[in-house]
C-alpha cells in the first residue's frame, strides 16, 4: 500500500486541479476547534473530482472519511492517519429545478440554502437557517430545529458509492428518522439533495429566519466553540433540562465545560482537548444517569 506522500502524488498526477493538503489540522475544520492533523485532506469541487478521487481510493485500498462543516464532529487530539475529504466550501452549487424545487450540492451550508430559497420566494428551510452544518451533513443526520427537519422538505438525495458511481435515492430509501438517516448505515457520500418547498414571500421567509436566529442568540453560547447539542434527546426528557437539574451547568474538565448559558451544549473555553470533551461527556452522562435513571448518549460524532 502507498504511503500518504505517494498517494498524494498519485492523486495530483490523476486529478491535477484537486486541492490537497498534507498534515492539515482538524482543529481548523471543526467547530469545536479541536483535533490534530489529518494525514491528507482533499477538497473536491465537483462530483467528477470526487468520483475520480474515490476510484483512486478504491484502487489503492484507502478508506477516506468525510467532513462537511465539522459542526458535529469531535476529532482526535492525535490527528487521523487517514484521507479526510472535506466538502464545505468545495462541493458547491445551487439551482432551481422546478417552480418549487431546488437542488443543492452537499458542501453548501444549510444557511446559504435557506437564503437561496428565500430569494426565490420559497419557504420551508427557515428552520435550517441557523444550523451551521452543510446540506450533506444535514441530510446525513436529518438535522432539525424549532419543529422543522430535513426530512420534511427533502425529496431525494444524490449519493456516491465508494467506487465513485453516483445515483439518486428517494426520500423513502433515505429512511429519515429522528437525527438519523440510512446514510449513517451505508458507506455512501451525499453529493447533493433536492428539496420541495412552499411559495412564500421573501420578506415572510426572512422574518421567520430572523426570529429563529434571535431565539438561538438568546439561548445558545454562540460566542464559544462547540458542536451544538452534545447529547441526543433521550426518551422521556430533554438533555439540557436533565443536565441542568443535575446541577451540572458550568461543570468543567480541562478546557471543556457544560455551557452556563445552555446546559445541552459542551463548549471549548480555550485549549480544550478531545480527551477533555470525552471525559466531560462521560461524567455528565453518568451523573445524570445516577440522578434520573436516564442515560444520555452523545449526539456529536466522536472520531
Ligand atoms: C452552534 C451550533 C448549533 C447547532 N444547532 C443544531 C440544530 O439546531 N439542529 C441540528 O440538527 N444540529 C445542530 N448543530 C449540529 C450540526 O450543525 C448538525 O449536526 C449538522 O447537520 C452537521 O453538519 P456538518 O456539515 O457540520 O457535518 P460534519 O460535522 O462535518 O459531519 C457530521 C457527520 O456527518 C458525516 N457527513 C458530513 N457530510 C457528509 C456527506 N456529504 N456525506 C456523507 N456523510 C457526511 C460525517 O462523516 C460525520 O460523521 C449545531 C451545531 C453547532 C456548532
Brief summary:
The chain has nine helices and 19 strands. The protein has 303 residues and is α+β, with helices and mostly antiparallel strands. The protein starts with a helix and ends with a strand.
Protein architecture, described:
The protein has about 300 residues and is of the alpha+beta class. The protein has 3 domains: about 5-85, Uridine Diphospho-n-acetylenolpyruvylglucosamine Reductase, domain 2 (2-Layer Sandwich); about 95-205, Uridine Diphospho-n-acetylenolpyruvylglucosamine Reductase, domain 3, CATH 3.30.465.10; about 220-300, Uridine Diphospho-n-acetylenolpyruvylglucosamine Reductase, domain 1 (Alpha-Beta Complex). Helices cover about 30% and strands about 25% of the residues. It has 9 helices and 19 strands. It has helices spanning about 5-15, 45-60, 110-120, 135-140, 150-155, 170-175, 200-220, 240-245, 275-290; strands at about 20-25, 35-45, 65, 75, 80-85, 95-100, 100-105, 120-125, 145, 150, 155-160, 165-170, 190-195, 200, 225-230, 250-255, 255-260, 265-270, 300. The strands form 6 sheets. The chain has a 5-stranded antiparallel beta sheet. Strands 1-2-5-3 form a 4-stranded mixed beta sheet, with helices on one face. It is globular and about 55 Å long. The two termini are about 25 Å apart. The mean pLDDT is about 95. The structure holds flavin-adenine dinucleotide (FAD). Flavin-adenine dinucleotide (FAD) binds near residues 132, 136, 145 and 227.
Amino acid at each position: 500500500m502507498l504511503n500518504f506522500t505517494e498517494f498524494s502524488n498519485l492523486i495530483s498526477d490523476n486529478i491535477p486541479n484537486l486541492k490537497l493538503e498534507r498534515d492539515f489540522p482538524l482543529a481548523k475544520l471543526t467547530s469545536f476547534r479541536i483535533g490534530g492533523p489529518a494525514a491528507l485532506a482533499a477538497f473536491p469541487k465537483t462530483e467528477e473530482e470526487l468520483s475520480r478521487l474515490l476510484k483512486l481510493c478504491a484502487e489503492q485500498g484507502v478508506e477516506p472519511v468525510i467532513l462537511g462543516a465539522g459542526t458535529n464532529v469531535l476529532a482526535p487530539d492525535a490527528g487521523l492517519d487517514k484521507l479526510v475529504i472535506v466538502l464545505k466550501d468545495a462541493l458547491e452549487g445551487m439551482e432551481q429545478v422546478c417552480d418549487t424545487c431546488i437542488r443543492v450540492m452537499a458542501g453548501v451550508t444549510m444557511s446559504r440554502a435557506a437564503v437561496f430559497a428565500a430569494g426565490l420566494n420559497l419557504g420551508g428551510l427557515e428552520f435550517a437557517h441557523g444550523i451551521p452544518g452543510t446540506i450533506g451533513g444535514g441530510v446525513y443526520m436529518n438535522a432539525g430545529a424549532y419543529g422543522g427537519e430535513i426530512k420534511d422538505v427533502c425529496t431525494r438525495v444524490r449519493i456516491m458509492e465508494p467506487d465513485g458511481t453516483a445515483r439518486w435515492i428517494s426520500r423513502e430509501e433515505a429512511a429519515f428518522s429522528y437525527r438519523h438517516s440510512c446514510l449513517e448505515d451505508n458507506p455512501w457520500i451525499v453529493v447533493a439533495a433536492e428539496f420541495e418547498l412552499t411559495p412564500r414571500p421573501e420578506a415572510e421567509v426572512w422574518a421567520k429566519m430572523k426570529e429563529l436566529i434571535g431565539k438561538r442568540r438568546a439561548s445558545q453560547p454562540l460566542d464559544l466553540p462547540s458542536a451544538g447539542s452534545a447529547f441526543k434527546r433521550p426518551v422521556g426528557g430533554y438533555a439540557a433540562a436533565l443536565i441542568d437539574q443535575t446541577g451540572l451547568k458550568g461543570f468543567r474538565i480541562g478546557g471543556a465545560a457544560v455551557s452556563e448559558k445552555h446546559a445541552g451544549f459542551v463548549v471549548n473555553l480555550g485549549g480544550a482537548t478531545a480527551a477533555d470533551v470525552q471525559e466531560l461527556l462521560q461524567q455528565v452522562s453518568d451523573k445524570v444517569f445516577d440522578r434520573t435513571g436516564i442515560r444520555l448518549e452523545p449526539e456529536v460524532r466522536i472520531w
